[in-house]
Amino acid sequence: MDRFEYVMVMVSIIIGLAMTHLLQGLVEVAQRPKPFRLRSIHLVWVLFMLVTIAFFWWWQFKLQALQEWTFGTYIFVLVFACQMYFQSTLLFPKNLGPDVDLDEFFHQHRAWFFGVNALSQLIDLVDTWLKGSEHFQSLGPEYPIGVAVQIIGSLIAIFVPARAFQWVFALGSLLYVLSLALRQFNTLA
Description:
The chain is an all-alpha fold. It is built from eight helices and no strands. The mean pLDDT is 87.
């Protein structure tokens, strides 16, 4: 086992738990004996998190290029993984009782979900900036604009429960992360 494989074990476990939580929630909804109302806003954020987790995992392969792993670098990557797990748990309750309304559950926990989303975007922005101006500029103007939209959108979503805004923000976020993953990180290298 090389250094990269060793340090990624814990990250892999946490990312796997996040993905498992989301998939288990979807399976429990599908297996209910009586029809379960799954609303679009909740489902779109579940899909957003599934894509984001897969994208994070895919991107982590690039960390093989690191010649030296410091404890700080390891903790930073670990915190990102924990953030995704935490955000995933805010989409499905631990126990899906027969009367759980997932849309209501999401709206009750949206401040946490969007707060963590905004914080993760801010951390990613700082991380990208710390990698140097050349790396930051290589991502083009789309990167800081995309991060700003996510931060501002998340902060608005905390305080604005309007379903129309929530739906547009969710769908826009999902389409953007899919587009970004396919356009900029399509090849594992």
